[in-house]
Amino acid sequence: MSNRPLAAAGRLVPLLRAGLIAGIVVAAVAYPVVALTGVGAKATAHAVESKTRLLTTALPAETSYLYAPDGKTVLTMFFEEYRQYTKLSDISPHMQQAIVSAEDNRFYQHHGVDPKGVARAFVANARSSGVSQGASTLTMQYVRMALRDSAVTPKEVQEATAQTPIRKVKEMRMSVDLEKELSKEEILERYLNSAYFGHRAYGIYAASEIFFSKTPKELTPVEAATLAGLVKSPSQYDPASSDQKEATARRNYVLDNMARLGYLSPDSVQAAKTEPIRLRLTYPSNDCASVPEKWNSWGFLCDYLKNWWSAQPAFGDNRLERLDKLRRGGYRIVLSMDPKIQAAAEENVGTKGNTGSPFANGIVVAEPGTGRVKAMAVNRTYSLQVDENPLSSNPEAGPNVRANYPNTVAPLMGGGDLPGYQAGSTFKMFPMLAALDAGMTLNTTFNAPHRYQSQIYDGWAPTNASGAMSGTQTMWSGFGKSVNTYFVWLEEQVGAERAVRLAEQLGLRWRTDVDRDHASPAKANKWGAFTLGVSDATPLEMANAYAAVAADGRYCEAIPVSAIYNRDGTPATFKTAGGIEREVAKPRCRQVVNADAARAATDAARCPTGDNPAKGGCGGWSTADSVRGTVGRPVAGKTGTTDSTRSAWFVGYTPELAAASFISDPDNPFNAVGDGQSQIPIAAVANTLRDALKGKPVRDFVPPSDRIVG
């Protein structure tokens, strides 16, 4: 019986050498099981040809890189399979020769399927009455890997890797067809970028870096043979294991083959085989927790980048698709933050020496006119290790729940799914801006009592923080002193719903059931307390909303990047609803209120800071009159505190930058920070703006027109 398989193999080889190969014929001869299934070439030809065409353009998953603003310094990477695609010209010839020697000695002689290999497999399989031995060439292995990597469903993954004769038939057919479309060099390049080498190293770039801390171009013959030997069984031949015996034997096998094929001299191989395997292991960083320690606070920016990315339709139809694209798409992403501004922010919220407090003090700095986030810092350590954090200050959290300090990765400054913190009187900007945009003037006057009973908000009767705030107020003095009763009255005049909708247009989102209910169309016009900042907001939202005022009413979506490049170096783009193609990293801006209204709001917003407005008077005192002296240039802004000073805020801006800072307990909003700490956000913003703008030319705000002054 054993003579018949050998005779059949002898007849098969010349046919294959003559090029008379069809996938189904090869399979039927080499794998008798397939012939019994009734699978025909015509039945599978269309699907096979379609997939073959796909493989000519398909590229494997590739690592995405996150860069510092210089576009050169790598902060971290995002990957499921650590891989960077590398051109064949950037791969050592030794590595090219080693992989051929290890996996497919006749790679340059066959046309996708090796007839000698098929004959060997045929003999082995006939004797075992099954499929005991494959005949996979480099091309066939690449086809299998490419089908696996391009699979989008579990079924496709299973079909690409199933150990069945049918899968082998398709693989052979596709390999033959692929070699008609791609050169040997192109196939070898793709193979070397797809193969798995162990230790999460996918492709030769990752393998070279992880095992030897060098580029593929720098690999020596010994190193190349070591890596090539891994592909067959990365775990069995792992050179990083405690016993290198099998890894060394496999390496030497590859070296011997390199000599037999004429790639290396026998003498050099004998010398190389005496060398021990010398590794220089590197473990690549992955995700935001791997941002280097010296830039620890940048981890919060990285985390915001991920949350922002997951909301961009340009990268997929849902959050999971978009994050998968981030980990597999080979993007080059450059953060928008400014290292000088970030350093100032970190210094002024105490990121290094004040992380042991339950009260989070954070700051976000945004750029008017672009929406780009220039800094994001909080007095916390960005870390997943929370086991040694104290217990939460929230009595309802449960007995074993850890607090968010000193370590956390929670998006405390916005950009995630946390609701934020009640922002107090910083919300007075929204009804004032809405009133100005509706045609009211800065000189709109009201004799504000200490207590005001609303006839619109069902008899609600708010009071001022101090009796000294009573009396006749304008927008300048009412904003500068933060007169509650003036702004409740003003909100009544313009309509609370108009103020709520304007806040939404400026980027605010309602994340609690209570806020969503009050902001609904049915109830928004009765939300009188909106002007007092009873809604939750994040520093990111508030910095960006005030940045729109600084930019003459032009709102730009918050964005954490200055550039995003595809794997081929082109800018990542998306199509707008109107079909216009735009770069994902470009600012997305729109005019929300007219420029004169925004300039008028800024003129009033100079009063809280101790600055002098261009057109009016502030009424003699203000809530943060030290800010102008600290910043040393024209500045506007607004303080905000909540009941019992559970949280305190300050949002300030110049023509160049807008910054929002808060102090609150993220774990327990009822844990009041107290009046004594209400100055902390004021100082954080003032000092950060001062330090960030040091050495920059002084710019003044554009004054409002006389018409809107009134």
What does this structure look like?
The chain is of the alpha+beta class. Among the domains are: 85-274, Penicillin binding protein transpeptidase fold (Orthogonal Bundle), CATH 1.10.3810.10; 421-556 and 590-664, 3-Layer(aba) Sandwich (Beta-lactamase). The protein has 27 helices and 19 strands. The strands form seven sheets. Strands 5-4-19-18-17 form a five-stranded antiparallel sheet, sandwiched between helices. The N and C termini lie far apart (108 Å).
Given this structure, which CATH class of the domain at 421-556 and 590-664 is correct?
Alpha Beta
Give the CATH H-level superfamily of the domain at 421-556 and 590-664: DD-peptidase/beta-lactamase superfamily
CATH architectural name of the domain at 421-556 and 590-664: 3-Layer(aba) Sandwich
Helix content: 40-55%
Shape: elongated
* N-C termini distance: 108 Å
Task: Give the mean pLDDT.
Answer: 90
- Percent of residues in beta strands: 5-15%
Low-confidence stretches: 1-43
Number of continuous helical runs? 27
Strand order of the largest sheet: 5-4-19-18-17
**What would you report as the Rg, rounded to the nearest angstrom?**
34 Å
CATH topology of the domain at 421-556 and 590-664: Beta-lactamase
Q: Count the strands?
A: 19
| SSE-based structural type | alpha+beta
**Strand count, sense and closure of the main sheet?**
5 strands, antiparallel
GO molecular function: penicillin binding; peptidoglycan glycosyltransferase activity; serine-type D-Ala-D-Ala carboxypeptidase activity
Family: In the C-terminal section; belongs to the transpeptidase family. In the N-terminal section; belongs to the glycosyltransferase 51 family.
Transmembrane segments: 12-34
Organism: Micromonospora zingiberis
